[in-house]
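Annotated sample (chain length 477).
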Amino acid sequence: MTQETTTIKLPTPWRFKRYYFFILITVMALVLPWVEINGSHFFLLSFDKLKLHLGFVQFDMQELYLLPFLLMMLFLGIFGMTVMGGRVFCGWICPQTIFRVIYRDVIETKLLKLRKRIKNKQQEPDMSIAANKVKKAVAVLLWVILSFVASANLLWFFVPPEDFFAYMANPLDHMILLGTLLSFALFLVYDIVFLKEDYCIYVCPYSRIQSVLYDENTVMALYNTNRGGHIYNDDKEKVFTKQKDLQAVEAHAECTACESCVTVCPTHIDIRKGLQLECINCLECVDACTVVMGKLGKPSLVTWSSEYEIIDKQGKTKYFRPKIIAYIVLLVGIAAAMVIMGSKKEHMLLNINKENRLYSVHKERDGRIAVENAYEFLLQNTQNKTLNFYFEVILPEGVQGTLEIEKPKDSFDVTPDIKKKKIVVLRTYDKLADDARHDTIIPITIRAYAIGHEGEIEVLRKSTFTYPREDVLREAK
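Output written by the structure step:
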């Protein structure tokens, strides 16, 4: 009597979902550098113009205190992602993985037929065949071209496209940019064509720290030993290669020993061996086993789940556990702090330095005593258009008298991104202090503003005005 098996409806392969996600990420990475709103990019760290663009808002280099917040969010985000979903970043987001899929699966396999099947990543092409040598050369040439595109795309987040292509029109005048582009491109060729997945296994530090982030509820690609049987012993040694031998020891074992999950693995591991740092959570082994077991009318032995649920059978995976909640709280807190600090962005920059000479005193023709203090103002217009600026001096409460701006008399224009130096002289004819023995340091506030944009483009800066003692005033000529 033969046992009939019925196939079950297979879900959409994870591989296809990854491909869709890869396309989305690639399109976003290529398009975002070209998108501008009021002359600002979504993200641009320009060392050339000393600017940080974040969320279509420009920040001067003096406001780079936002960058550590971004780095903290990046690392905490990846760590939190690892605690919840294992090396999901590696399998779904990392450029290394995306580039290897493009080169190995698209160019070598689908386009040039150099490799026979995407599902067999262990079999290397026979390079003794002349036709394969030609195909390999074409594949490398195509990847060299794509490497330059990818390298340029990375640089666009540091040198915007409108400047990048203008600079590249005269490459000898921009050797650092040209050298960086060539270095990145050559590294990508070496990495993707020759180093391959060894980069993930031996070079990338992320694989080394993942083990300290995992817990029993971390979701990853897991082989269900309760259903499939133990192919490896406790010492991680392979003891079974055939299903009949496995079933002789474990009668319930469902693993067919077809090794489809092994041949499809891009990092050349056997998922049935258990947790391994080489696993990048690409889930191709899940797809392979889903097809094989589906033909037998059974669910996959390799699933994207947790040890808590699949191996230990203690219940459903706990996604929102204390560790995950802590990461979420930290990320939200850092994001909120960054938004709050970013909202305090100053729309102009002003540095004030007082001249070494404390003051100058002279007597006017009408007999009045004039006391002057000189300052050096360094002002930068961080807007995208030329604006007209001027100042106002505010004395503290309790000080009787006024300070007038002797120089400059009139407002002045400042072009965008140019630091303009102005010598400012403040003068008073009033008696601001009465001290016979010491000079008096009077705190003042300088309000600088763009004319026509008061209340929007203005800053307040603290400084001092030095008023002389009585004997200096008496000796004024």
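Annotation: DSSP finds 15 helices and 16 strands in the chain.
Annotation: Residues 130-155 form the longest helix (26 residues).
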